[in-house]
Amino acid sequence: MAPSFWFRVAMSVLARPHLWATAIRQAGRLARPQWWRRAPFLPLPDAEYLQFRFETQYGDAPPVPDDVVLYLEWCHQMGNPRSTPGPRR
Predict the structure, then answer these.
(1) What is the largest CA-CA distance in the chain?
(2) What pLDDT score was predicted for residue 81?
(3) Looking at residue 23, what is its pLDDT?
(4) Are 68 and 9 in contact (CB under 8 A)?
(5) Is 29 in contact with 89 (CB distance < 8 Å)?
(6) Residues 63 and 54: beta-carbon distance below 8 Å
(7) What's phi and psi for 32, nearest 5 deg?
(8) Nearest 5°: phi and psi at 21?
């Protein structure tokens, strides 16, 4: 993915402070397992996974940074599923 795409995503998320915690949480969920053991030592998703996801969503068309913001908005609205009370036993 082109650096300009990720720059536009970052700028869009930075302009929406209510999404910052959601973006960090989702980055952690999508990060490669044991990301801290391999360079670049950042919680980034696996490149093959991202390629697969973008290809299945967009085909040959270029990805749209606003879709990442829409995804984060959806995650934010869904809340943290771990904090939702489950059935009582």
Answers:
(1) 51
(2) 58
(3) 93
(4) yes
(5) no
(6) yes
(7) -60, 145
(8) -65, -40
Distance CA 30, CA 28 (A): 6
Of 76, 68, 74, the C-alpha closest to 50 is 68
SS3 of 66, please?
helix
How far apart, in whole angstroms, are the C-alpha atoms of residue 38 and residue 42? Answer: 8
Q: Which two tokens stand for residue 72?
A: 């984060």
Q: Which residues contact 31 (CB under 8 A, 6 or more apart)?
A: 43, 44, 45
pTM: 0.75
> Alpha carbon 7 to chain centroid distance?
14
Q: pLDDT, tens digit, for every residue of 33-87?
A: 998 998 888 888 888 988 898 899 889 888 888 999 999 999 999 875 555 555 5
CB atoms within 10 A of CB 26: 17
